[in-house]
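Predict structure. Input: ECF RNA polymerase sigma factor EcfG, 167 residues.
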Amino acid sequence: MAQLTSIEILLPELRAYAIAICHSREEAEDLVQDAVERGLRSGGRPDPIGELRPWMFRVIRNLHYDELRKRRVRREYFAAEKRLSNEAGASDTARDVLIRLAFKKLPPETREVLCLVDIMGLKYAEAAKVMDVPNGTVMSRISRARKALLEIVDGAETAKQEVTRKT
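Output follows.
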């Protein structure tokens, strides 16, 4: 019989830990598989099993929290996108396209603050750190950015309504 590797010896413990921190067994199995793959690919993994054990637990934990962060960012992005569309007043496709086109017309610094706060869902203080400006600056920029975006959207809708009336 072939001799088991250190990672194979640790598999039951790795699975138990993954199940403890995940919502489902399937998710835990995927997590262990990803961790083992990462462990096998890593040239810097510890050799003695006593050091490998906590190292693999840390890999599982880091992979798990990375996945949770990805999910949160996606959820916040879609919620913010929906909120931005609803704040504009309508949920139809034409209005969404109009908002996206208006967003592209804004200057980069205006798009940046809108993206960080309204799309990515950052708090003002977090956006201020990203942009390296005071909180109050973010608050005034977001206010001006929202106003500019709505002016572009409202102006385009007014023009669209005038064209529709004339035809």
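The chain has two domains: 6-71, 89-166.
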